[in-house]
Amino acid sequence: MAELAWSLKKANYADETIRMVNSALRTLVTRGADISNPETVKETIARQNWSENRRRNVANAYNLYANKYGIKWEKPRTSFSRKLPFIPKEDELDSLVAGSHKKLSSFLQLLKETGMRSGEATRLKWTDLDEERRVIILNMPEKGSNPRIWKINTRLLGMLESLKKKNEYIFGNPNTRAIRASFCDMRRSISQKLQNPRLTRISFHTFRHWKATNLYHQTKNILLVKEFLGHASLENTLLYIQVEQAIFGLSNDDEYEVTATNDKEDIKRLISVGFEYICQKDDILFFRKRK
C-alpha cells in the first residue's frame, strides 16, 4: 500500500484522498478480502452494511489499486446520493474555537472565515500570508478548485502571528492527520463539558458548509459563493440555496433597513456596521442591511 500511496502522491492526489484510499484498502483486508483477488473484494463489499456512498468510495479506492497493479476486475455498480450538510449555530463553532489550544484554535478560525478545506489550510505556507495587507493567498487548491485570495480580519491575523514559525508551513505539518486527531479529542471533551452532543457532528468540512450557507444568506449571490469556495462548477454550489432557505426561511429575513447619504464619513460608518451599497441617484448613495 505504501507503493500505491507514493504513486498517488506523484500523480498529485491530495493527501486526504491518499489517506482515504489506504484506509479503504485496510478495511477490505480486515473484513476478509484478498486484495490480489478482485472476486473476494467484490464479495466483501457486497456483504457490508455500508451506505451507498461508502460502498462507492471503497470500490473507487480498490479501482486505483487494481489499475496500479494491472488487476482486471469489473467494478460493482454503485450510485451517489447527496446528503444535505449539517449546519451548526455560530456559537457552536465559536465554542470549539475558544476551547482549543492555540494552533488548533487558529486553524478552526481560519476555516470559519475562509471556508477553506482542511487539506488546503494545512499546506499554507508563511509566504502565502501577507501580514501587512492582511491577505492570504491559496495557490494549491484541492479537488480541481480555483485559486483563491481572502482579506482576513485583525483577530485572525493576530492568532496566526502568535504561532511559532517552526518551518515553512503555518501550521507546521502539511498532513491533516495529526491536527484532525487533536480536533476529535478536543471536540469530544468540549461536547461533554457543554452537554451539547451536536458538537460531535462538527467536522473540519462543517466550517466550509457553514461559511457558504451564511455567505449566500448575506448576499443572495450564488456566483459570489461559487467564487469564494473556488468551485469549478456551479452545480456544487447550488446546494447552499436549498440549505439557506431551510435554515433562514423565505420571508422575514428578506426585509431590509435602507438608508441614503452623500457624506463620506457617513458612508464609512454605514459600511463598517454591515450596510451594502445598492445604487446612486443623482449625488445620493443608497445602502441596505438585513434586519
Notes on the structure:
This protein is mainly alpha-helical and 291 residues long. It has three domains: 2-68, no CATH class; 90-221, Orthogonal Bundle (hpI Integrase, Chain A); 255-290, no CATH class. Helix content is 51%, strand content 10%. The protein has 13 helices and six strands. A three-stranded antiparallel sheet has the order 1-2-3. Helix 1 (2-10) packs antiparallel against helix 2 and helix 6 (102-114) runs parallel beside helix 10 (204-219). The longest helix is centred in the middle third of the chain and has 19 residues, at 176-194. The chain is elongated. The N and C termini lie far apart (55 Å). The mean pLDDT is 91.
Would you summarize the structure shown here?
With 291 residues, the protein is mostly helical. 51% of the residues lie in helices and 10% in strands.
Question: How does the SSE layout of this entry go?
Answer:
Layout: H1 2-10, H2 15-30, H3 38-47, H4 52-68, H5 90-98, H6 102-114, H7 118-122, E1 129-130, E2 135-138, E3 148-151, H8 154-161, H9 176-194, H10 204-219, H11 222-229, H12 239-248, E4 256-261, H13 264-272, E5 276-281, E6 284-290
Antiparallel strand pairs: 1-2, 2-3, 4-6, 5-6
Helix pairs in contact: 1-2, 2-4, 3-4, 5-6, 6-10, 10-11, 10-12
Shape: elongated
CATH superfamily of the largest domain: Intergrase catalytic core
* Most strands sheet: 3 strands, antiparallel
Number of helices: 13
Structural class given helices, strands, pairing? mainly alpha
Uncertain spans, ≥5 residues at pLDDT below 50?
Answer: none
Distance between the termini: 55 Å
